[in-house]
């Protein structure tokens, strides 16, 4: 009996120690995430860049829009079309009217999706900490002691997921992924963001892909050509 009790004590102590280490590891990674987002949100305002957005429907490229982006003196993001925008040709007659109506529906859907996705971009440090405090964070080891993924459950909606991959050695973020839905779970959408760093360490979203399978819609956004100043 004494041996059994001792064995249970060892198992319990090991579990407690493991939990403590895991919790510490999660908090350290969250602190790194918060620091990266907070500092980069401030420093990115010194730059201008080119945003190129390509829209695909049913696997076919439908449009390309390009904007020069910068923050004004009030801290508001400004987007100015560069002129390098193309649209797919619309057929005439009845087919043209059907295509035009479908285009309007898709454009309305895209605007609605943008509104929802804005709540996730960028992830808010206070929200991440709140989810961690409520016990809705899991950590996955991608490379022991070096790279991790933190999964934040129910970030905005029930059963949605925000996953952030962290390079802990280099104190940098690699990418984050959002799996959520529009009005119902049957209309699932995802957003995949790959991070890149400027020479001064400023973090930015280099490549963003939005997918809406139910609409056979994909939008790819690439940010490039970063320069100090507005570029005007």
Summarize the structure.
This protein is α+β, with helices and mostly antiparallel strands. The protein is 33% helix and 40% strand. Helix 1 (2-43) packs antiparallel against helix 3.
Overview of the molecule:
There is one protein chain. With 232 residues, the protein is α+β, with helices and mostly antiparallel strands. It has one domain. Helices cover 33% and strands 40% of the residues. The chain is built from 3 helices and 11 strands. Strands 1, 2, 3, 4, 5, 6, 7, 8, 9, 10 and 11 form an 11-stranded antiparallel sheet that branches. Strand 9 and strand 10 form a beta hairpin. The longest helix has 42 residues. The radius of gyration is 22 Å and the shape is globular. The termini are far apart. The N terminus is likely disordered.
Helicity range of the residues? 25-40%
**Domains (count):** 1
Q: Can you write the helix and strand succession as a string? A: HEEEEHHEEEEEEE
Q: Specify the number of helices.
A: 3
Query: How much strand content do the residues show?
Result: 35-45%
Q: For the terminal residues, how far apart are their CA atoms?
A: 80 Å
Rg: 22 Å
- Look at the structure and give the mean pLDDT: 83
The total beta strand count reads 11
Structure class = alpha+beta
Topology (elements, then pairings):
Elements (H helix, E strand, L loop, with lengths): L1 H42 L3 E11 L2 E12 L5 E5 L4 E2 L5 H25 L7 H9 L3 E7 L3 E7 L7 E7 L4 E10 L6 E10 L5 E10 L4 E12 L4
Antiparallel strand pairs: 1-2, 1-11, 2-3, 2-4, 5-6, 6-7, 7-8, 8-9, 9-10, 10-11
């Amino acid at each position: 009996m004494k041996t059994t009790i001792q064995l249970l004590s060892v198992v319990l102590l090991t579990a407690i120690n493991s939990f403590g280490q895991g919790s510490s590891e999660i908090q350290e990674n969250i602190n790194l995430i918060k620091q990266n987002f907070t500092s980069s949100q401030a420093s990115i305002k010194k730059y201008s860049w080119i945003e190129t957005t390509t829209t695909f429907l049913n696997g076919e490229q439908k449009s390309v829009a390009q904007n020069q982006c910068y923050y004004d003196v009030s801290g508001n993001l400004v987007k100015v079309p560069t002129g390098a925008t193309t649209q797919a040709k619309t057929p005439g007659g009845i087919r043209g009217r059907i295509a035009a109506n479908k285009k309007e529906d898709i454009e309305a859907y895209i605007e609605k999706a943008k509104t929802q996705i804005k709540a996730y971009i960028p992830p808010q440090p206070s929200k991440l900490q709140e989810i961690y405090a409520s016990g809705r964070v899991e950590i996955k080891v991608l490379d022991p002691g070096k790279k991790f993924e933190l999964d934040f459950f129910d970030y905005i909606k029930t059963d949605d997921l925000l996953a952030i991959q962290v390079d802990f050695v280099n104190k940098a973020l690699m990418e984050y992924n959002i799996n959520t839905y529009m009005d119902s779970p049957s209309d699932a959408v995802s957003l995949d963001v790959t991070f890149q760093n400027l020479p001064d360490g400023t973090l930015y979203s280099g490549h963003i892909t939005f997918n809406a399978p139910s609409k056979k819609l994909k939008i790819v956004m690439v940010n490039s050509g970063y320069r100090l100043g507005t570029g005007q």
